Amino acid sequence: MENWIIYILNGLYFASFLFxxxxxxxxxxxxxxxxxxxxxxxxxxxxxxxxxxxxxxGVHAPVSIxxxxxxxxxxxxxxxxxxxxxxLIRPMYERALEYQLLITFGALLxxxxxxxxxxxxxxxxxxxxxxxxxxxxxxxxxxxxYFLFAMLITVxxxxxxxxxxxxxxxxxxxxxxxxxxxxxxxMGIRTGRLNTLAFGMxxxxxGLAGALVVPTTPALLGIGMxxxxxxxxxxxxxxLGSLKGALVGSLIVxxxxxxxxxxxPEIELPLLFLVAVIILVFKPKGLFxx
Amino acid sequence: MRFIGQFLRPKSFVYLxxxxxxxxxxxxxxxxxxxxxxxxxxxxxxxxxxxxxxxxTGLLSFGxxxxxxxxxxxxxxxGRYFPELYRIEILIPVALLVSLIVSALFGFICVRHTRIFxxxxxxxxxMVLFALLVKLYDITGGSDGLHIDLPxxxxxxxxxxxxxxxxxxxxxxxxxxxxxxxxxxMLGIVNSPFGKALQSIRDNEVRAEMIGIRVRRYRWYAFxxxxxxxxxxxxxxxxxxxxxxxxxAEWVFSGEIVYxxxxxxFMVLEGPIIGAILFTYLKLYAVSITQYWMFIIxxxxxxxxxxxPEGITGGFVRLFSRIKKSxxxxxx
Lengths: 290, 332
What we know:
The structure holds two protein chains of two kinds.
Chain A: H1 2-32, H2 39-57, H3 63-89, H4 97-119, H5 128-132, E1 135-138, E2 141-144, H6 145-167, H7 169-179, H8 181-186, H9 191-213, H10 225-238, H11 243-263, H12 268-282
Antiparallel strand pairs in A: 1-2
Helix pairs in contact in A: 1-6, 1-9, 1-10, 1-11, 2-3, 2-4, 2-9, 2-10, 3-9, 6-7, 7-9, 10-11, 10-12, 11-12
Chain B: H1 2-5, H2 10-23, H3 25-28, H4 31-57, H5 64-81, H6 88-110, H7 115-135, H8 137-140, E1 146-147, H9 163-168, H10 170-191, H11 193-203, H12 205-210, H13 215-241, E2 243-244, H14 251-264, H15 271-289, H16 293-307, H17 311-331
Antiparallel strand pairs in B: 1-2
Helix pairs in contact in B: 4-10, 4-13, 4-14, 4-15, 5-6, 5-7, 5-13, 6-7, 6-13, 10-11, 11-13, 14-15, 14-17, 15-16
């Protein structure tokens, strides 16, 4: 029984950074209608930035350094997102789908090599925060407190995004754009600036997710590829452009994966997809799709 | 009759000429260049299939690498488990059959959606295949991949021969002929009533449905046909490369397929062929001059999308029509 509590908690941890990645992807897709293939690379920027800061400053790694690293990752990825949107993505809004996808694919290739140029091809280890935070005992099992900390950060970020989307003027305008872009324009909403903002926000979330992962896995080249793919599955399950969809989708995916690793260790990724296909058969637009 | 009529145009004689010139390539090109050209040809067969979906059906697949890998792995697995059947006249039909099954399965799921969801689904499915190829080490060789031996061709064994000799000999002609036949078949498909139906679906789904075209089923057929060409390309490529790894199923390779097609220009049938061959050289050149080859590929891709969206062939067409127009105004 206690084992299962651990598995479920592991699933929650996995779901938490997945939620941040998928939420960013979902905001970009919902507001701008662009599938950002470079999202995994923004995730990787966050991961490398955080690992580098923890490695350089956090010799004793107090939690404050880690929080600093999280912010640095968030800001760097967000800035990268702003640069991407204003330079490459902006001319693409009126273009066909294949060009939109290809330009983000090109951005992915560029960013992957930029990361390689900046941080070199070696792995960065930053497990200090993980070790420092200690371990919680649940019965005979041990559970790292870091996982709970990561969930806490995710909840804070999720509530923050929800507050922005639900309560602020900017959030309402963003939701209006994602519902009907033409109408929003006609009502005098400046879609250009808001697009940039939405892209930056999505990118920052990806960077935060990347930074949260780094204490448990080293920052390697191509670290963002798998989260990107799984975030796609989350979006397919949860439905386009909805915060609720991203949340429920990532919980389903996180738990499925965590339990799948225990029961069918070889095929946990195909298993995830099986779940997605079953959901799509009954709900073609995803659980909360419009 | 109309189908035959298509081949009695001046253009066809140009292509016949090109085909004859290509027959002499092994005599002219150094072996290394020739091998590159051969992998370009296999990519060209693949991109023909890819373009059936993109240009003629209006579906952008970001997971065609998986279908390419299917063909390649069909060959590799045959070599591993049925070495006595390792003959090219058996391997190619087997690869086609396996591609048929896999693309029917993938297509069945993917065509439930269009546009961006179709692309995501194709991508995610391809990653499932990638994960299986990597994880099932005992069956597929995992990330080490599989070695591809030289097959016997029509009763003639090539055992003990070195790969370059094999590739510049009989195999080159086999590949070239397969390529020519594939191109002709694809030309037949896109000009058939079936091809026209696909194009009507692309242009207006609702209207196509109204005139009695079974939209989803036709999309599925198109996906399977596309998968067959792609799998054939993969099978033929495996012999050229001599080694296959799961990387061809990864979505980055699928992205490269999209790139090739747009590089050549997907509005004309010939575009993807040119794009595939050019891309092979471009990538190899980039890899050989710098470790940051992805940067070069990415930058050229972005420049292409921003400045030359119709690809190389589209650029030429535009140039020609502009020259014609200026001649016309000049005469007047």
